[in-house]
Amino acid sequence: MSDSQQPPESVYNHLSKEESKVQKATKDSMKTMGPANVEMPSPDKFLKKHSKEPKLPEGETCTCTVRKPPVPKRTDIPPMEIHTKKDFSQTTVAVPVKPTPASVDSRKGDKQLLEQSGLVPKYVLKQDYGEVPAYLQKRREEETKTQEEYERFIAEQKEQEAKKRLSEEERQSILKGLKKRWDHFHREYQCLPLIIDTFSKKAHKKRLEEAMSQLEKDISYFETYTIIYKPKD
């Protein structure tokens, strides 16, 4: 192992000397900080007076033909007998402005307008204060009209559904007819044969029993209650 030391490995070792000088100069130029080096202005180009004011293009001049009226001379007589309706004595009088009423509601001086604070009774001073609003009156009239129509309808329904009381003669006549009809079905029931083996005989017997049962209920009802009502014809 030799004692000689080798230079550190670098990419610049593989470049020629001229290329390395150019690259180094370019690299050194990038190391500056601050603004770039610019050429200093010449001392002859200093800022002059009125140099930044707008100027007319060369060859053009101002063409102002209208002139103001001349100042009156000291010997000129002013125009007389010119009257006006304006009263200068009244217009020059300063009218004091009244302060807007306000209320202070805290010890720190916080205040608000008195009219909006609710302390001024402005609503009770209205002409229609305490009166029922028009829309409520209209609603009340509509409710009253609806209630009257409903009551009229109910009364008509009651009249249509009203019942008439049976008199004692009518009750006895109906009761007599029910008993007579029950006797008729009872005789037919007793005339049935002892042996009922066909479907028609069984159905006839069932009809007679149902009719007699219903007649017995009706007879019991008319005998129990002496006051009976019936619907009007």
Automatic annotation (TrEMBL):
GO terms for molecular function: calmodulin binding. Keywords: Cell projection, Cytoplasm, Cytoskeleton. PROSITE patterns: ENKURIN. Residues 1-110 are annotated as: Disordered. InterPro entries: Enkurin_dom, Enkurin_domain-protein. It is found in: Cell projection, Cilium; Cytoplasm, Cytoskeleton. Its main location: other. Residues 138-230 form the Enkurin domain. Residues 15-30 have a biased composition (Basic and acidic residues). One of its GO terms (cellular component) is axonemal microtubule. It comes from the Eukaryota. Pfam families: Enkurin. This is Enkurin, TRPC channel interacting protein. It comes from Nothobranchius furzeri. The gene is ENKUR.
